[in-house]
């Protein structure tokens, strides 16, 4: 630890409330553990201060402290590089090629995560857990596809991304989107633009409670709902619980805290500060959840923070940092290398796990892991066997979490999330320190440039230990290359065969019906309603 780090930690401890409370140490017999899974949206690996201390940023004091009291993963990956597939894989422990979710659902999607899929909350709920979700679902919101029909007892949040609908006071975005009243019932542009056919709805259980919702008070709403859930679960129900918090942060539009006297309709900040301010707000929300949990059932609660995919580079100053994972091979040929791509910036995400007394404090793990591993790990900690009628892709990481085991996954496949080839295709493979691309592809960079998709036969192979920027592939034909390519090719064929012969593969219905866009009261402009009072 550098000398400059200590004051930084102390201020973090004060801000995050650590010195301010002593938790009543509840005795811990064989009670089942509580789980709080926090999924940030579009966060960059480099956004977590402790992932790159040399940058000397001080945006995430609460997460830094959580890492200091828990375990920080440096080689943890989202299961996909875009929203719906990543979330589907977290909740099912399966690749999109099995669970059917290979790309994003739309505002007027008729379906969602296939009903044949079994979710983590369903399994825990059946086992006696109280299950609640706060935040962005994005796995289908019509009828049986909504969160309260997929295993959650309670839900409060946005059914999809926070840019998929207008609001009265828009947050920061690029392009800047107009407010609901001036945009009217039309679609201005779709990809990366402003969808304003209906206002952004806030849903509680299966009803719209506010439309358009107020982006600027959402953090407070999430915080008070989470507080209520954690406290009620502990004191009133005495049940173990799963709380899944899928944050609106750091996805655009960003709506960082307003200065105390700011008129609420005015844009108040220099655009260069907006991302950092939002990141700090996210961090203090995470700190608040940790504090509430520490005050209620500290020694029996695992908090697992991670991200759904890398930063949305196209949003320029409103996008996060990939740190050293710049995907230079790609960016030097044009285009972006973060969200939607299988370059490291697309899926390597900041990840911290915290469980006082169970997870050794102040530890770092470079084990190769994926968000898909959350499913089998939580089930294993809860003592719930997953149904044996299907194949899973996640691994049980209990020994890595609790016992310092270092070896993670032998292989990890990164699905195409729109940058190259067919959606969901497993064209990028990680084995140890090596990573092979059978197809490369790119997303839009800041400024909108894209490179082209390119097939590689033989594959491009990078050594991530020597070359985190993925700049210079190994020379084809060297003994190192040969050894790696043979193993990777064989394992990839085995996996594809396993999926091809898996009888439990689901297919998602991606069809659209414009009349199904969530709408509180179609007679009023962009479906205005407010039942929150
Ligand atoms: C955490 O680990 C770092 C690096 O090993 C060490 O310098 C630091 O003192 C540790 N902090 C605490 C609170 O133990
Ligand atoms: C949501 O469901 C919970 C649990 O069933 C219930 O207590 C609450 O009143 C419901 N809220 C709404 C707005 O229906």
TrEMBL record:
Residues 33-384 form the Sulfatase N-terminal domain. It is found in: Lysosome. Gene3D superfamilies: 3.30.1120.10, Alkaline Phosphatase, subunit A. Pfam families: Sulfatase, Sulfatase_C. Its cofactor is Ca(2+). GO terms for molecular function: arylsulfatase activity; metal ion binding; N-sulfoglucosamine-3-sulfatase activity. PROSITE patterns: SULFATASE_1 (PS00523), SULFATASE_2 (PS00149). The keyword Calcium applies. Keywords: Calcium, Disulfide bond, Glycoprotein, Hydrolase, Lysosome, Metal-binding, Signal. Belongs to the sulfatase family. This is Arylsulfatase G. It comes from Mola mola (Ocean sunfish).
């Amino acid at each position: 630890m550098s000398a400059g780090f200590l004051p930084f930690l102390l201020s973090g401890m004060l801000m995050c409330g650590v010195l301010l409370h002593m938790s009543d140490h509840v005795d811990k017999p064989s009670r089942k553990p509580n789980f709080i899974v926090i999924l940030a949206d579009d966060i960059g690996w480099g956004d977590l201060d402790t992932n790159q201390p040399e940058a000397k940023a001080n945006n995430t004091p609460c997460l830094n402290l959580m890492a200091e009291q828990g375990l920080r993963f440096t080689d943890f990956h989202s299961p996909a590089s875009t929203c719906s597939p990543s979330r589907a894989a977290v909740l099912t422990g399966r690749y999109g090629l099995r669970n059917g979710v290979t790309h994003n659902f739309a505002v007027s999607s008729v379906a969602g995560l296939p009903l044949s899929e079994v979710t983590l909350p369903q399994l825990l709920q059946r086992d006696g857990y109280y299950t609640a979700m706060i935040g962005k679902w994005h796995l289908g919101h019509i009828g049986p596809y909504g969160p309260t029909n997929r295993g959650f007892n309670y839900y409060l949040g946005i059914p999809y991304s926070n840019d998929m609908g207008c609001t009265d006071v828009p947050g920061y975005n690029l392009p800047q989107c107009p407010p609901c009243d001036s945009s009217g019932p039309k679609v201005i542009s779709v990809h990366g633009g402003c969808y304003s056919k209906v206002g952004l709805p806030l849903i509680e259980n299966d009803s719209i409670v506010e439309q358009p919702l107020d982006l600027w008070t959402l953090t407070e709403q999430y915080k008070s709902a989470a507080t209520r859930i954690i406290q009620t679960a502990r004191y009133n129900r005495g049940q173990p619980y799963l709380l899944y918090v899928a944050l609106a942060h750091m996805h655009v539009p960003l709506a960082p805290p307003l200065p105390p006297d700011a008129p609420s309709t005015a844009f108040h900040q220099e655009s260069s500060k907006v991302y950092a301010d939002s990141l700090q707000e996210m961090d203090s929300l995470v700190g608040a959840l940790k504090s509430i949990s520490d005050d209620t059932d500290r020694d029996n609660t695992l908090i697992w923070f991670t991200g759904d995919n890398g930063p949305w580079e196209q949003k320029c100053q409103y996008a996060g940092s990939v740190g050293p994972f710049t995907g230079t091979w790609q960016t030097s040929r044009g285009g972006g290398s973060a969200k939607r791509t299988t370059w490291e910036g697309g899926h390597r995400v900041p990840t911290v796990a915290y469980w006082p007394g169970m997870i050794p404090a102040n530890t770092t793990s470079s084990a190769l892991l994926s968000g898909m591993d959350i499913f089998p790990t939580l089930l294993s900690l809860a003592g719930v066997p997953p149904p044996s009628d299907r194949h899973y892709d996640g691994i049980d990481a209990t020994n890595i979490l609790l016992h310092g085991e270092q070896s993670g996954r032998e292989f990890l496949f990164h699905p195409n999330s729109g940058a190259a080839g067919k959606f969901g295709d497993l064209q990028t493979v990680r084995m140890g320190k090596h990573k092979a691309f059978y197809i490369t592809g790119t997303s839009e960079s800041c400024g909108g440039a894209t490179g082209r998709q390119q097939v590689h036969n033989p594959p491009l192979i990078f050594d991530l230990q020597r070359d985190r920027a993925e700049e210079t592939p190994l020379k084809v034909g060297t003994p190192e290359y040969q050894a790696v390519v043979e193993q990777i090719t064989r394992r990839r064929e085995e996996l594809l065969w396993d999926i091809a012969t898996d009888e439990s593969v689901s297919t998602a219905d991606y069809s659209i019906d414009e009349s199904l866009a969530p709408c509180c009261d179609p007679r009023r402009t962009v479906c205005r309603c407010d039942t929150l009072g």
